[in-house]
Structure formats: C-alpha cells, structure tokens
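Query protein
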Amino acid sequence: KMDIFTSIPTHIDYVGQAKAEKLYRAIITLFSIVGFIWGYIVQQFSQSVYILGAGFILAAILTLPPWPMYRRNPLNWQNPRNTDEKSSG
C-alpha cells in the first residue's frame, strides 16, 4: 500500500538545484516587474500583489517538485568500505 509513496523520487541533483533557482528567480523577477507596471497603469496596488502571487505559485509548481529535468546529473557515490577491515587511525 505504501509502495506508491516510496516510489516517488524526492531528490534533485546539484545541477538541477542551480536550474531550479535560476528559473525561480527569473519567474519572480518577471512577474514582479509586470505586476508593478500593471499596478501602476491601473493605479491598483492589489493588482500588483495578485500578479506577484501568481508568479510565486507558478514558480513553486515549477521548482519545488523533483521534476525529471532536475534529476539528469546524478551523483556517483563511492562504494561502502568493508566493515571487517581494521581502520588505521
């Protein structure tokens, strides 16, 4: 029953993190500029807030889940050491 939840990937790689952050910043910046301009044109601060909120929601949908585009460069982990070997310390 719980296999469906454990099969969902929950990680993104470092390159994916950088892509997600760039995309997030671009979306928030674009929507804040558009929101400011539109709010200034219609003289309604609430319109600016709504547009910025829409940008925040869009950015969250596109960057928070671990979409496959953020998991294309997996890390190559080292194999675990044999625990029977004595550590020299």
In short: The chain has a mean pLDDT of 89.
